[in-house]
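user: can you give me the structure for this one chain? tokens are fine.
assistant: on it. calling the predictor now.
[tool input]
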Amino acid sequence: MAQSDVLKDAADAAGSYGELMSQPTSRVEAIDLLRGLVMVVMALDHVRDFVMPLADPTNLVTTYPALFFTRFITHYCAPTFYFLAGVGAFYAAKRRTPNELSWFLITRGLWLVFLEMVIVRFGWYFSWNNTNFEGLTIWALGWSMVALAGFVRLPGWLMMSISTAMVLGHNAFDGLKPEAFGAASWVWKVLHAPAPIVMGSVTLQTPYTLVPWMGVMALGFGFGQDGIKRALKLGPLLILAFVLLRFSNLYGDPHPWTVQASLSLTVMSFLSCEKYPPSLLYLLMTLGPSITLLGLVDWWAKGCRGQLPGLAQPVILFGRVPMFYYLLHLYLAHLLGICVALYRFGDASSFFEMPAALMGNPKIPSDAPLWVVYAVWVVVLVALYPACKWFAAYKARNRDKEWLSYF
């Protein structure tokens, strides 16, 4: 296949990255590979949710290193995904007018919110008869895109200043509780302090608060200008900032690390940063290595003359169809979780009553061993590959269909 054909297929299969056609192929593949790695690791986390719904990997009293780091590696998913969504929006801006870009971000963002509340929600519950809703990854991603539609109309320096302040400064408001806002407490719960919002018989949980996720996406937009060229400098600086600030216990996370009874527990304490909402240290810890890896992959891709080796192509493929992959993997992980429960206990009724993956369920007497999680994860990835390959090819053949850019 000619390089121009590769570029065209890559761009058209890349969802919000569809505007990358004018960029070098190496840059396309570097971004898609990093995003694909995020999707692969994310599947591991969700499989663990369904196969081991009772385990708490972050509880230093009950966890163990293999379980802790199985969860820890998945912390890189959400920050990287939000950041790359901002990078993708920057490239989309190259081929759209400001009005067209804002409209695209608003409509795509609202579409993602709809997907979270309906399609993704059913993937977690497998039931329509539940009054509990969660504002999770796709929810916050959608609202962050809506916010970005406004951010992109600002002067670049102002957008970057506001988004940087959101990321760096939001922990200064950790002590501000929703009750301080009276009847408007729900606004603070959505923006910064995750807590249930009760609306009659319906409860909305808000673990993915919008600040600082909106800031992370906006920073990704600014990074798109020429940030990849500086990734190998910026990424290590963020890692160093994390180490120094975390060691000091001065600021950036509501849970200071402490020396534990063993070295492994001490390391786990050091790495246990708050995700809900994502603390400054959590974001430094995750975005630093991700940006560094993006720079390394970009350098590698250039050395491969614009196309990475065949072993990387399945991961790149997953990165080109992220929303299609996301929806399929969630349903498949839930189905396989049911199969594991049926095999072990002869009963999987709890998987149709509540999101067992998020809350645990007393009807599940025990978790499966960790090796089962990894085995099911491999099954999910192998099963998803043909479907994702078909959908990527379908998008490449139908570049004129605007609705495909929303997946």
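assistant: here you go. The first strand starts at residue 132 and ends at 134. Residues 3-406 form one domain.
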